[in-house]
Write a structure and sequence with these properties.
Blueprint (H helix, E strand, L loop, with lengths): L6 E5 L3 H11 L3 E8 L2 E7 L7 E5 L9 H12 L6 E4 L3 H10 L4 E7 L5 E6 L5 E6 L4
Length: 138
């Protein structure tokens, strides 16, 4: 089979704050920004991966979600209980410093892991977990 990842979705409660983080701090490019029926979807991606996109969507954006389900999603997002994304980087230390300077919540400073990578972890402005992995250079 010829399968490749194209898009993944992250729930955000404030697209402008999310854009300030993903675009201005992490250097992602905005590929699409669509509003529809009082909702907004923003597609971002790394300039190094033009064929992979992250869609920033409202919590509970599923049109089949009940009002109670949408409220539950919003509460889980606010608590940081929804899953996030893992990125790779060539320099965890520099990335961590840049993110800290932007005032983002640091969950784990860069550290060597027993499984062979160096990584760090943050929460985006909506509370999503983001991990950044630096692979060994040799």
């Amino acid at each position: 089979m010829d399968l490749k990842l194209k898009q993944c979705f992250l729930a955000v409660d404030d697209h402008d704050k999310a854009l300030a983080f993903y675009r201005d701090v992490l250097g992602m490019e905005v590929r699409n920004d669509v509003g529809f029926e009082n909702m907004r979807w923003v597609t971002i991606g790394s300039p190094l991966q033009p064929d992979v996109e992250i869609v920033l969507e409202p919590p509970g954006a599923n049109p089949d979600a009940s009002p109670a389900d949408k409220e539950t999603m919003a509460r889980l997002l606010a608590k940081g209980m929804l899953r996030g994304v893992i990125f790779t980087t060539v320099d965890c230390e520099a990335l961590c410093e840049r993110v800290q300077e932007a005032g983002v919540e640091v969950l784990q400073e860069p550290m060597d892991q027993p499984y062979g990578v160096r990584d760090c972890a943050f929460r985006d402005p909506a509370g999503n977990l983001l991990r950044f992995i630096e692979r060994p250079r040799d």
